[in-house]
Structures are given as C-alpha cells and as structure tokens.
Amino acid sequence: MFLSLFYLLRANRLKVSLDEWLMLLEGMRKGLHGSTLDGFYTLCRAVVVTSEVDFDRFDQVFLEFFRGVEPQEQLPEELRKWLEHPELTREDIQRLQKFTGLSEEEIEALFARRLQDQKEEHNGGRKWIGTDGYTAFGNQGERMGGIRVGGESRYRSAYRLAGERRYRDWRTDCTLDSRQFQQAFRGLRQLSRLTDAPKTELDVDATIQKTCQNGGMLRMEYTFPRKNTLKLLLLIDSGGSMEPYQRLCSMLFQAVSKAGHFKDLKIFYFHNRPGNLVYKDPALTLSSAVETEWILKNLFRDYRVIFIGDAEMSVNDLLGRRGAGGDLKSGIDWLLEFKNHYSHIIWLHPQMRPNGHSYWTQSFDLIAQQFPMYQITLEELTLGIKRLLVAK
Fold first, then answer.
1. Would you list the DSSP string of 234-286?
2. Of 36, 225, 289, 332, whose CB neighbour count within 10 A is largest?
3. How far is the C-alpha of 304 from the C-alpha of 264, rounded, in Å?
C-alpha cells in the first residue's frame, strides 16, 4: 500500500528506511491517521522525516503524490442553497446533526430562534448565522464542528498545508541568505603558522611544559599565529541573463569580503563567458579591463578559482570566436585555459540545474563537462568549498 510513495520519497533524497515504512503502515493499520488525508500527512511526516531540514522536501513530495486530490472543504451545492432559503427537512436535520453534534431538538429550536431574531446579514460573534463567528452556522468560524457557508477554511487541509512551503527556509538545499553565505565561506580556509607575523599567540602546551620545568613558576610561551594562507580568485558573470540574480551575487560578494582574511582575494567580471578581457567593474567598463592572459601569468596555480554564472548562453557565443580586440580564442578555449592552469576550480550557478536539451541549456551541459557544477544552496556550496580544499 502506497509503495509508490515510498519510492518517490527515496527518489527525492528522503532517507526512508524499511523499518520506518513498516512503522508507518503499522500506524495506519491501528487507525492513527484517522482515515483522513490530514491525519495521514501528520502521521507520515512524523515517521519518515527525521530532521527539520527535510520538512519542505517532504511537503513537495506529498504535493506531487496527491496531486489532483481535492480537499473536501466546500459545502455541497444543495446545502448552500438550503442556507440561502432555510427550510429544515428531515434530511437537513440529520446532516446538521452530523456536522454540529447537536441534537435534533436543539437544532430545530436554535435555528428557528436565529431566523426569527436575525433581520440582516451578520458576520462575527457567537450567535448569528454569518462569517467569522463561533456559531454552528456560517463560514470561517471557530467552531470546528459547525457549518461553513462558502469562504475558505481557516483549518487548513494537509494538502493546503504542504502547499504553503512553510519550511522552505529550513532546508540545506535552499538559496542562501547573507549570513549563510558568510558561514559557508568561513570554511574556505587553509591555516598555517608559516607566516611572517611575530609570535603573538599563546602556546598553551609550551606554556604548561615551561612552567613545569620552571618549578611551577608561570612562564608564558608564544607562537606564530595561524593565518589563512588561501588565495581566492572569483570570476562572476555580469549582466544579461544574470540580472535576475543580481541581489544573490551581491550577497555572495559581501559574504566573501566579510568571511575572511584570505591571503589574497581577486574578483573579476565577464559577460556569459570570459574572453581575452575580464573586468574589475561589474559594469564591464573598458577602463576596468584586465587582460585574461595577465591573470593566467601572474596569479599562480595556488589560487582557488570560483566561476559564478548561470552558464546559459548562445552556443555560438561559447564555441565561437568574438574577434573583438584581437580575441582569437573561443569562450570554451578560455575556460580550458583556466582549467589547465588551476588545479582547484569550480563553477557555481544560481538557478536549478536545467533539465532537457533546449537550445539555451546546451551551453550549460558543455561547461558542466569541464568543471564541477554546484548550485548556490547551502548544501551544494558546502560541497563545492570542500572540493576546493581537497589536496591535489
């Protein structure tokens, strides 16, 4: 039962074990889901989701699996018509008993009294037939067993709850904010004591040893401070299809600047793909132009390199030669120059990895054949940074 849901959860990287799935089926057998979709949603999430970061992924799978199942929120048409022209029949009374929990006599007496007293539309409160109240008749009321007339339920179904994506910010594969960017880039460190700085950092082990050797009299020992010796080269796609991601790239730039004390940090910009020139200014002004050959000759192999861009462009732009300013190499040729020169290099893209083989995604596939590609999410950025730190 629901075996296809089990496979769909696993396919979406939710690590549901067989024991957990059998536990879910046992809970259903015991009726813990209350034979409702809402109950199944709550039970299933409680059993198969082991971390809050997976809540949003579970909601997406739930939506996909139950797509087309309409939550039973709207009143039947005949009941709505009855409320517009109230006449209590035996069938109506039985239906009201089911919805309200009141006895037949209580329903007849209460409804007759309300109709007699109420002369106009009334919304809110605990007494009249209307909206936003606590009565058993109306809509958007607080009485869970009452009749809702039109409107939208405040007590949301599981389907609506999953569709709200309330847990999207708890994911580790969601787009980052500025603070998360900074935390991720703080991991991009290569600490070493082989620096030219003076001995200013307390050496606890040496202090203990020297103090013991000195008969218990405190003797402070200092050592060279550990500094981040990592050098970072950022090359960022600017303009065009990257305009929608301008704020994201700005946060990334600020995070890199604040994260940390790199031994050297170089940032350059290009459009779609690097050519014979890259730029210090995101506006790509000629006055800020730097020859790409100069970078390859002067920034040595010990730099870690990060390309940032959507990698989506005309295939001719990637494979063709622009020819402007004496540029006789294609975009892919320049990318291969970087790949062959630097041993630690990755490409970050802001959008989800494109599916299919459309014209505008061919360039993405070609670049992905040359560089490790990571989407700018907490999970994938962390993987990318780890790759930059791997010894080669």
1. EEEE-SGGGGGGHHHHHHHHHHHHHH---SEEEEEEEBSB--SEEESSTT--G
2. 332
3. 10
The b-or-e profile of 74-96 (16+ CB within 10 A means b, else e) is ebeeebeebbeeeeeeeebbebb
- Are 166 and 95 in a shared domain? no
Could you tell me if 151 and 139 are in contact, meaning their C-beta atoms sit under 8 angstroms apart?
yes
What separation in angstroms does the CA of 174 have from each of 373, 379, 381, 384?
Answer: 16, 8, 11, 15
User: Which residue range(s) make up the domain with 93?
Assistant: 77-148
Q: Is the domain of 131 the same as that of 246?
A: no
Run of H or E including 364? helix 362-368
| Cβ pair 231, 303 in contact under 8 A | yes
> Residues in the chain, how many?
392
- Burial string for 290-307 (b: 16+ CB within 10 Å, else e) reads eebeebeeebeeebbbbb
Q: Which two tokens stand for residue 190?
A: 């290569």
- The answer to whether the beta carbons of residues 9 and 58 sit under 8 Å apart is yes
- Are 148 and 139 within 8 A, CB to CB? yes
Cα–Cα distances (Å) from 328 to 113, 275, 331, in that order, read 90, 9, 10
376 and 238 part of one domain: yes
How many CB atoms sit inside 10 A of residue 275's CB?
Answer: 21
Residues 289, 336 share a domain: yes
> How many domains are contained in the chain?
3
Q: Which amino acid is at 304?
A: R
Do 56 and 89 lie in one domain? The reply is: no
Residue type, 36: T
Per-residue pLDDT of the chain (392 residues; tens, 9 = 90+): 578 888 888 888 888 888 888 898 898 888 888 888 888 888 988 998 888 777 778 888 888 887 766 555 454 555 555 555 555 566 656 665 655 666 666 666 666 665 555 544 444 444 444 444 444 444 444 443 333 334 443 334 544 555 555 544 444 444 556 667 777 777 676 555 555 567 777 888 888 998 999 888 898 888 866 666 788 999 999 888 888 888 887 777 777 777 667 788 899 999 999 999 999 988 888 899 999 999 999 999 999 999 999 999 888 889 988 656 667 899 999 999 999 999 999 999 988 877 767 777 889 999 999 999 999 887 888 899 889 888 76
